[in-house]
Amino acid sequence: MSDEKNPPPTTARGDVVLEAVGLTKHFPVRGLRSGGAVVHAVDGIDLELRSGQVVALVGESGSGKSTVARLLARLYPQTSGDILLHGKPVTARRGGDFRRYARRVQMIFQDPFGSLNPVHTVRYHLTRALRIHHKGLRGQALETALRELLERVHLTPERYIDKFPHELSGGQRQRIAIARALAADPEVLLADEPISMLDVSIRVGILNLLQDLRDRLGIAILYITHDIASARYFADRTQVMYAGRPVEAGDSESVTQEPAHPYTQLLVRSAPDPDDLSGADRNAGRGEPPNMVRPPAGCRFNPRCPFATDLCREVVPPLLPISPQRSVACWGYAAQVPGGLETAPAGAVLPDLGSDAVPVQLTETVHAAPTQGVTR
Ligand SMILES: Nc1ncnc2c1ncn2[C@@H]1O[C@H](COP(=O)(O)OP(=O)(O)OP(=O)(O)O)[C@@H](O)[C@H]1O
Ligand code: SF4
Ligand SMILES: [Mg+2]
Predict the structure, then answer these.
(1) Residue 22 CA, ligand 2 centroid: distance in Å
(2) What is the pTM of this model?
(3) Structural domains in the chain?
(4) Residues 6+ positions from 48 with CB-CB distance below 8 Å
(5) Where is this region: Disordered (predicted)?
(6) Given the CA of residue 261, which atom of ligand 2 is nearest to it?
(7) Per-residue pLDDT tens for 288-316?
(8) 310 C-alpha vs ligand 2 centroid, how far in Å?
């Protein structure tokens, strides 16, 4: 089903497909008295999506996860920073360039109930998507493409092709939404909380399907979630955001099993059972989220952090590489990373994370095996 006029570049598994560098989005606050104020939704996010890999973007409500996905999908222009597709800057926002980009980078939304038109059948939704992305597809070739799409999302074509959305369960609708995204033959899927509105019993099935697409088709997947337990289960790498900023990134096993940043530690402590995908309320006891119009100076987590010093309240911590696979934006690690002390002003008092600091290993030994495939 690929478009011969615009074939995607040959990509080997593990190659970077889509990249964000210093991605930043400030939304203007509307109203007469706003005085030019902005919502600091996303500030300086770096992200690499590789062929055949899942990256989880984790953070609490309002941390900027959906804004990152919408920026990557080119639904918003960024305030600053770059988006690169196969190393080339992406600027398209409309017209043919945007349509070509949208074919390669597709988005799946949280709400499978709102994303399908209730008066149209599965056949209509998928035919429309196929015709948009593959001009001239009709007759037997169209029928074959429809069958293939349904089979890719593990739905029996004869059984589902003529159903209306109201005849489908939430999980089946989300599968149709995924099939519609696959009609474009994308290289990247941006999945914004794809399971959070589904019954607990069918969540694993959708994650298994996405893993299957990653493995069989080599699609790069951004999996957005507020639930770090599901990130461990499903993603190869995990990046944690707090109040629009990056706080920790690394292989999912290390980030979820030995969280280094005090905020990641709080997230993991609030998710007692890492195999529980129920999405039960894990926000309890985490304190107040910050004001995103006037976010805290320095480390944005400082008002909620038990280890904060004046340095944390004044200077933004850099992302420090605490292992070959792992980086953390916390002053508590500055003394343990070569060159880390030079990133702090002379004489500044560093926070002491005590026994909450993870043992920092600067050798290859820190590598943990990536999250294994899930049981189907
Ligand atoms: N179009 C917009 N205009 C103004 N502010 C916005 C807009 N979209 C998002 N925001 C603000 O940007 C911040 C980040 O929002 P975003 O939706 O990206 O967070 P999120 O991490 O996806 O949250 P959730 O888990 O609740 O979906 C929030 O403070 C939000 O109110
Ligand atoms: S110790 Fe300081 S830099 Fe680290 S998370 Fe706490 S407030 Fe932020
Ligand atoms: Mg969101």
Answers:
(1) 21
(2) 0.90
(3) 15-120+184-202+216-241 (3.40.50.300), 308-348 (no CATH)
(4) 16, 18, 19, 55
(5) 269-295
(6) 5
(7) 788 999 999 999 999 999 999 999 999 99
(8) 10
